[in-house]
Predict the structure.
Amino acid sequence: MDLELAGKIVFVAGASRGIGAATARLFAQEGADVLVGYHRSRAAAERTAEEVHKASRQAWLVELDVGEPASVASAMKEVTRLVRAIDVAVLCAGTNSISPLLETPVAEWDEVLRVNLNGTFYLLREVVPLLREPGAIVTVSSVAGHTGAAHHAHYAAAKAGVVNLTKSAAKALAPGIRVNCVAPGLTETEMGKQAIGEQDEDYLKRKLLAQRMASPDEIARTIVFLASPAASFIYGATLDVNGGRDLR
């Protein structure tokens, strides 16, 4: 299937590693140029940009802290300077920590919501004026946003908020801009491995029909699909890419 992304310009927040990096790479393979959004790890962002260049596409680095409104606004001014306008925005930046619900420090709670939920809102607010119509925004939630999580309740709460923020944005921005969400399950990233902790393969076999964790590319494929004209009649949806979690 031709996803009709050749020549498009895509901004990916959280593109220095994990799902975000895989997403940037796949967009480039589909013919898009990519703005690589990152926070702390410039070296990792540069590696993502190198992967984009290998696909013979342009890449630009954009530094920002998604949880700081001023940083997001400044980054989008830089995006405007670099490319004037974009066709797609992927809001993939996130953070997590492991802490039992009643033992979670307030500062830790605030930080996880600041990045995952507030950051999604700040990005939405700033990227919309940059989007050409028809345009697309894809947010990233988590299976935890549906199921809850005893040892990272802050993350689950934030990701549940992302799902409903996505629906609200879809209603506010239709029909010219489609807003959808991907909710990954356990994925082979630093964050995913932290979430599963000491669980073994038996845990995966009990919980997942796929009996394994996802690769970042498997999540990225769904993100790229939702951003493409191939998904032109999908608005406000959350696609669960979780290996059949809890269906056994």
